[in-house]
């Protein structure tokens, strides 16, 4: 069974260009069930877990992430993103941009994309 969720459209879960790895936005989908996990913090952790699984395919880890883009359906939940990131990352933290959006695929509460350094 794949460690990555099944894509919901015609796109790659990640691509490599030179020494950088670019992920597609990772929804909080459990790859075993292909369903969303419940609750905002659990969704944030699952999205990061999916990113981590991509990185592991290339022999890398979350500490290789240099940039994150975080999309949330409600910025009121954003403090949970900070808490999860403090658990998963250490300084220097990745650069990060965050947006509140009207809706996300599958009615997810969060979607995260990453850029990692492969050098």
From TrEMBL:
One Pfam entry name: Ribonuc_L-PSP
Annotated GO CC locations: cytosol
UniProt feature coiled coil, ranges: none
InterPro entries: RidA (IPR006056), RutC-like_sf (IPR035959), YjgF/YER057c/UK114 (IPR006175)
CDD domains from the UniProt entry: YjgF_YER057c_UK114_family
GO MF term list: deaminase activity
Family: Belongs to the RutC family.
PANTHER family cross-referenced by the UniProt entry: 2-IMINOBUTANOATE/2-IMINOPROPANOATE DEAMINASE RIDA, 2-IMINOBUTANOATE_2-IMINOPROPANOATE DEAMINASE
Annotated NCBIfam families: Rid family detoxifying hydrolase
This protein's name: 2-iminobutanoate/2-iminopropanoate deaminase
Organism: Alkalibacterium olivapovliticus
């Amino acid at each position: 069974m794949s460690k990555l969720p099944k894509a919901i459209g015609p796109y790659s879960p990640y691509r490599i260009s030179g020494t950088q790895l670019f992920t597609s936005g990772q929804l909080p989908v459990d790859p075993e069930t292909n369903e969303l996990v419940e609750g905002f913090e659990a969704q944030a952790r699952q999205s990061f877990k999916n990113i981590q699984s991509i990185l592991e395919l290339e022999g890398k880890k979350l500490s290789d992430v240099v940039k994150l883009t975080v999309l949330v359906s409600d910025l009121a939940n954003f403090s949970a993103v900070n808490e999860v990131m403090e658990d998963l990352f250490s300084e220097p933290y990745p650069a990060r941009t965050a947006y509140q959006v009207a809706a996300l695929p599958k009615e997810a509460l969060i979607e995260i994309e990453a850029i990692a350094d492969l050098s």
